[in-house]
Amino acid sequence: MDSRYISDIAFTPSVKNRQEEMGSRVAYQNMAEKRDWQTKITEQLRFFISKRDSFYMASANADGQPYIQHRGGPKGFLKVLDDQHLAFADFSGNRQYISVGNFDENNKVHLFLIDYPNRKRIKIWGEASIITNESNLMEQFIDKDYDVPIERIIKIKITAWDINCPQHIQQRYTIEEIKPYIDKLKNE
């Protein structure tokens, strides 16, 4: 039997059985032994997060019914608080409260961050908590250039994270990223 690795958060016994069946288990076992996933925020991860203006967040209710949601804001709206915690302002939106309600029953969360131009993605597993009454923390998320009301802060304690392969990521660029090149062409 395998010893406990951080990557076991995703590679459960049934996943390992499927990997064995499909022929990839040895490779993932070797990966875990040589370079298992991480639990602390490194400078590399901190930098990657600071450049993101969106991410995808998965939650599940008590029955295990999954839900995924896109979260967006100004670059850096997902903030690193320390070497094991992230947080972001939960802005007023469509008022469905599915993720927040899910966290009331099941605080497990998964973030998926993608850098489309550089074809990089990071997966983060964690535990979410909802913060509504810590004014010092909430003040850190006020952005005078982004005039949308903050309803709460969602704080995430990282359980594990990993860099995922670039395979199948189609390069995409924001207007902000391509505007200098367009301007240069116009000037020529």
Question: How is this structure best described in words?
Answer:
Pfam families: PNPOx_N. InterPro entries: Pyridox_Oxase_N, Split_barrel_FMN-bd. This is Pyridoxamine 5'-phosphate oxidase family protein. Residues 41-162 form the Pyridoxamine 5'-phosphate oxidase N-terminal domain. This protein is an alpha+beta fold and 188 residues long. It has helices at residues 13-22, 25-35, 43-50, 98-105, 135-139, 175-187; strands at residues 54-60, 66-72, 79-82, 85-91, 108-115, 120-131, 150-164. A 7-stranded antiparallel beta sheet has the order 2-1-5-6-7-4-3. Strand 3 and strand 4 form a beta hairpin. The longest helix has 13 residues, at 175-187. The protein is globular and about 55 Å long. The termini are far apart. The model has no long low-confidence stretch (mean pLDDT 91).
Outline of the structure:
This protein has helices at residues 13-22, 25-35, 43-50, 98-105, 135-139, 175-187; strands at 54-60, 66-72, 79-82, 85-91, 108-115, 120-131, 150-164. By secondary structure, it is an alpha+beta fold. The longest helix has 13 residues, at 175-187.
